[in-house]
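User: Hi! I'm working on a homework problem where we have to compare a predicted structure to a textbook description. Could you give me the structure for the chain below?
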Amino acid sequence: MKPGRAHVRQVSLLAGLLLLLLAPGCARDPSANYLGGIGDPVRGAALYAPRNLGDTSRWAGQPAEAAVAAEQLEFLTNELQTNPRYAPEVNPAVTQQLAAARAEMRGFLGIAPTAPPEPVIEGLRRAAAALRAGNRAGAEAALSGPSFTAGPLVTLARLNAMPRLPRTAEAAGAVAAELDRLDRRR
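Assistant: Happy to help. Predicted structure tokens:
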């Protein structure tokens, strides 16, 4: 083999490996493993927030994606309030905006205002996975816990008819700007 071909082959192999590492960063769930697990899921969710939460009406007719967006909001709100890396540094106005957005989203979807975030996140995540797999019964089961007070049928119908939520849109822009501010400080 000529040296030129070996070099081209190595470059192709490295490019393929890089794509494998970056592909999970493009996953549908931005708060899941970010950049193949080597990235920060809070950063991933915050960076995707303007796209996924800026105009939630874009998910009308796409209940799986709407569930992921709602899960992302729950995740960001919880993490920026409790994560020891972010909670001390994040501007309190941003966490207040996220809390207002979460209340707006929960109110629309029929989620108990005082429900702990973990079962809500898990229920929404499981519902999205079930919907993507074409398993409506699985999605209903995921949304039937005590946190989902409107019941699974109502919550699924609302995920399918997601409107634009103004508080959520405001919080999406604020959280992305806040992470940018924190990055510039470091």
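For your comparison, note the following. The mean pLDDT is 86. The CA atoms of residues 140 and 153 lie 7 Å apart. Good luck with the assignment!
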